[in-house]
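Request from the bench team (R.T.):
"We need a structural guess for the complex before ordering more calcium ion. Sequence and SMILES attached. Just send the tokens back."

Command: build protein-calcium ion structure.
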Amino acid sequence: MDIDDASGLAVVGAKHQVALDQYKETVGGDRNSGEKELERVGAVYVYSRANEFRDGVGTLIRPPRWASYEVARLQAVDYDARDLYGTAVAISNYVLFAGATGDDGKGINGGATYQSDIEFSKVAFRQKVFPYMENDVNKRAEVSVLRTGPTTDVLVVSYSTSDITAVGVDAQKFAACSLIPISDRHDRCGDYQQTFGDLTFDVGISAKSFFIPIMDNGCYEHPMEYIRVSLSVPGSGAILGENFVAKVRIDDDDKIAEPCIDK
Ligand SMILES: [Ca+2]
Ligand SMILES: [Ca+2]
Ligand SMILES: [Ca+2]
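Reply to R.T.: structure attached below.
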């Protein structure tokens, strides 16, 4: 393992880990290998320190502390069985170096070194739940993402929505439904528009938002419906932890109306 004091990050190599896909399911072994899982692929776990907090006159309010679970789990982008990614790890500021002694790219067990930018580990949703009314005046939910590390480089993360109990519709359907009077929309128009894209933190910017269009209707629904929002880092091979998932709650405003039905 290695710790970088400046960035407040620790990295721990776990070279015997099996491969996991983005849903944290194990990846099947190579055909004809007789192995159920892709074995000893290796992984690196990233932990983030919550910095100490002092008041205006320098009195310590809260000492620094390490979270007990990781902020991200990294795998080699081109992982394979017995590569042993994470055999050796080193971190300098936000750059991670990880050795994979079993990599076969340049001959059997020739080994490889991977360099990764792990600055994304300092990004998190502003809150765990973003509550909005179905009839919000702006007709959309604002989801705010914070960058807690330095802002001297541009940083890009991707975001996406998925259903928990709320039902998403695509942009085309949402636009068509928006032309129907609110009282006639009912269930077929869903609860929100499926939304995805990239958030770019320009230099000096520590907060960015994305917006999810909300569908209003005139019928009664379960008072609270939830959308999952999640962040990812394209091409990083990273499975991100709790900081990168949040919920948007949509509250119904039609308490005395008829229940929604699909019509
Ligand atoms: Ca709704
Ligand atoms: Ca309504
Ligand atoms: Ca409603």
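Two things stood out. Residues 134, 191, 221, 225, 250, 252 surround calcium ion (ligand 1) (CB under 6 Å). The chain is about 5% helix and 40% strand.
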